[in-house]
Each structure stands twice: as C-alpha cells, then as structure tokens.
UniProtKB/TrEMBL annotation:
<dbReference type="GO" id="GO:0045905">
    <property type="term" value="P:positive regulation of translational termination"/>
</dbReference>
<comment type="function">
    <text>Translation factor that promotes translation elongation and termination, particularly upon ribosome stalling at specific amino acid sequence contexts. Binds between the exit (E) and peptidyl (P) site of the ribosome and promotes rescue of stalled ribosome: specifically required for efficient translation of polyproline-containing peptides as well as other motifs that stall the ribosome. Acts as ribosome quality control (RQC) cofactor by joining the RQC complex to facilitate peptidyl transfer during CAT tailing step.</text>
</comment>
<protein>
    <recommendedName>
        <fullName>Eukaryotic translation initiation factor 5A</fullName>
    </recommendedName>
</protein>
<dbReference type="GO" id="GO:0003746">
    <property type="term" value="F:translation elongation factor activity"/>
</dbReference>
<dbReference type="Pfam" id="PF21485">
    <property type="entry name" value="IF5A-like_N"/>
</dbReference>
<keyword id="KW-0385">Hypusine</keyword>
<dbReference type="InterPro" id="IPR012340">
    <property type="entry name" value="NA-bd_OB-fold"/>
</dbReference>
<dbReference type="InterPro" id="IPR020189">
    <property type="entry name" value="IF5A_C"/>
</dbReference>
<feature type="region of interest" description="Disordered">
    <location>
        <begin position="1"/>
        <end position="21"/>
    </location>
</feature>
<dbReference type="InterPro" id="IPR008991">
    <property type="entry name" value="Translation_prot_SH3-like_sf"/>
</dbReference>
<feature type="compositionally biased region" description="Basic and acidic residues">
    <location>
        <begin position="1"/>
        <end position="12"/>
    </location>
</feature>
<dbReference type="InterPro" id="IPR001884">
    <property type="entry name" value="IF5A-like"/>
</dbReference>
<comment type="function">
    <text>Translation factor that promotes translation elongation and termination, particularly upon ribosome stalling at specific amino acid sequence contexts. Binds between the exit (E) and peptidyl (P) site of the ribosome and promotes rescue of stalled ribosome: specifically required for efficient translation of polyproline-containing peptides as well as other motifs that stall the ribosome. Acts as a ribosome quality control (RQC) cofactor by joining the RQC complex to facilitate peptidyl transfer during CAT tailing step.</text>
</comment>
<dbReference type="GO" id="GO:0043022">
    <property type="term" value="F:ribosome binding"/>
</dbReference>
<dbReference type="InterPro" id="IPR048670">
    <property type="entry name" value="IF5A-like_N"/>
</dbReference>
<dbReference type="InterPro" id="IPR014722">
    <property type="entry name" value="Rib_uL2_dom2"/>
</dbReference>
<feature type="domain" description="Translation initiation factor 5A C-terminal">
    <location>
        <begin position="96"/>
        <end position="165"/>
    </location>
</feature>
Length: 171
C-alpha cells in the first residue's frame, strides 16, 4: 500500500493543488485537461475502443487493450498543441480555470497594465498580452481614450489577458 502512495507523490508537481481529478472518459471537447504539466483546452477528443477481437474462451483479463481516450488540446496560455492518450477509466488532472474581468486603468512603459478590481483596489502584476492582435486592440483602445475591460484567465498559478471589451469612451 505504501508503495502506491509514493508513486502518487512522485507524480505531483507545484501545480497539483490547483487541479482536480476527473475520469478521462468524462472529459469532452471544450473541457480542460492538464497535459505535460500545462493547462489545456480540449479541441479534439476520440474515445476509441481499442479492444482487439479475440476469442473469449482463450483471452485473459488484461491481455488486450482497454478503451482509450485520445486528447488533442491547446495550451491556454501559449497556444501550443499537445496530445495525450489515457485509458478511459483512469483519472486525469483538470485545472481550475477562472476568468475575471477588470477595468483597464493604465499601461506602463515596461509593458505592465494597471487594472481596477471589483473591490476598488488595483492589480499591477500583469503584462500586456503576447497575442499581436489583442495587444494592438488594447494599446489602440487605450490611446483613443476608450473605457476598456480586459478578461483575465487564470489557471495553475498563471494569469494572462485573453480578451478585451470596449465599454465606451471616457468622459
């Protein structure tokens, strides 16, 4: 029994507390999964029954393949494509993904943004988005004096601006 506990321990990493287990066969397209330690959104999902045709009388339990899940997913922060194949009855790590909207107050010269939280405080630890199109929208909208709300996605200790809304022009 203690060997199994140690095996589980070695699989855990710094982001493990920011995830929860979910059976692989229940994860679907547009859901989230952790692949190679990265939080990802599932873009393609195949549930293959890879069980080979064998005669029941001569096969032994575990002698043939089990149903597998093939996940193709995109890292939610860097956009890289990742794949994984997991037995459908096994558990996968699923990240806790949160999305929060903040009003954009300022953009510093070093690329950090100042955001207004719901409680009235400022959040000053986020950089401008790396996506060129989104970066242009944020910078252009801010320079034009528009009231902008940015949507920030967070998972496994990382945060990133992933969307922007124009809520009008400042008075």
């Amino acid at each position: 029994m203690s060997d199994e506990e140690h095996h589980f321990e070695s699989k855990a990493d710094a982001g493990a507390s920011k995830t929860y287990p979910q059976q692989a066969g229940t994860i679907r397209k547009n859901g989230y999964i952790v692949i190679k330690g990265r939080p990802c959104k599932v873009v393609e999902f195949n549930h293959d029954n890879l069980e080979q045709v064998v005669e029941v009388s001569t096969s032994k339990t575990g002698k043939h393949g089990h149903a597998k899940c093939h996940f193709v997913a995109i890292d939610i922060f860097n956009g890289k494509k990742l794949e994984d194949i997991v037995p459908s009855s096994h558990n996968c790590d699923v990240p806790h993904v949160n999305r929060t909207d903040y009003q954009l107050i300022d953009i510093s010269e070093d690329g950090f943004v100042s955001l207004l939280t719901e409680s009235g405080n400022t959040k000053d630890d986020l950089r401008l988005p790396t996506d060129e199109n989104l970066l242009k929208q944020v910078k252009d909208g801010f320079q034009e004096g528009k009231d902008l709300v940015v949507s920030v996605m967070s998972a496994m200790g990382e945060e990133q601006i992933n969307a922007i809304k124009d809520i009008g022009t400042k008075n």
